[in-house]
């Protein structure tokens, strides 16, 4: 088996939060934006290391950047350029594994509850 380049840093902070990716999560598939140079093996290794889950399948989508127009002045003919190309990885996890995407950490919710309780206690004293 070939060595996987570990010097590739992927943008795996959190999965994409869109309607389509949210529907895919019901099938244990998560969507990550990744660098163009990332391989499927490197993506699988990074997801397993960062989220402590088991990856069963990785699919990759390369999206070509859209064409955009720009102007070089008031009377100049607008030129054409392209937005940056993007690459997304669709990662399927083993049965029973999941990544918490839309859940808030418990510390934040408990701090909010404590703040509300303090306000309510102040109102009751008055």
Describe this entry's structure for a reader.
The protein has helices at residues 19-24, 40-51, 106-125; strands at residues 29-34, 55-63, 67-70, 79-82, 86-93. With 126 residues, the chain is α+β, with helices and mostly antiparallel strands. The chain has a domain at 19-100: 2-Layer Sandwich (Alpha-Beta Plaits), CATH 3.30.70. The longest helix has 20 residues, at 106-125. The radius of gyration is 22 Å and the shape is flat.
Key phrases:
alpha+beta; 3 helices; 126 residues; 3-stranded antiparallel sheet
Structural class: alpha+beta
First-residue to last-residue Cα separation: 72 Å
Query: What's the count of strands?
Result: 5
CATH architecture of the domain at 19-100: 2-Layer Sandwich
User: What fraction, in percent, of the residue positions are helical?
Assistant: 25-40%
Q: Uncertain runs with pLDDT below 50, 5 residues or more?
A: none
Q: How is the biggest beta sheet arranged?
A: 3 strands, antiparallel
Question: What is the mean predicted local confidence, pLDDT?
Answer: 81
| CATH domain topology of the domain at 19-100 | Alpha-Beta Plaits
Largest beta sheet: strand ordering: 1-5-2
**General shape:** flat
């Amino acid at each position: 088996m070939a060595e996987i380049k570990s010097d590739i840093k992927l943008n795996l902070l959190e999965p994409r939060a869109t309607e389509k990716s949210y529907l895919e999560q019901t099938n244990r598939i998560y969507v990550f934006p990744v660098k163009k140079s990332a391989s499927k093996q490197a993506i699988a290794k990074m997801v397993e290391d960062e989220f402590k889950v088991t990856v069963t399948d990785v699919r990759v989508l390369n999206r070509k950047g859209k064409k955009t127009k720009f102007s070089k002045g008031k009377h100049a003919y607008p030129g054409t350029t392209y937005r940056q190309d993007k690459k997304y990885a669709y990662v399927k996890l083993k049965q029973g594994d999941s990544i918490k995407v839309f859940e808030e950490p418990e510390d934040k919710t408990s701090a909010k509850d404590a703040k509300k309780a303090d306000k309510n206690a102040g109102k009751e004293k008055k």
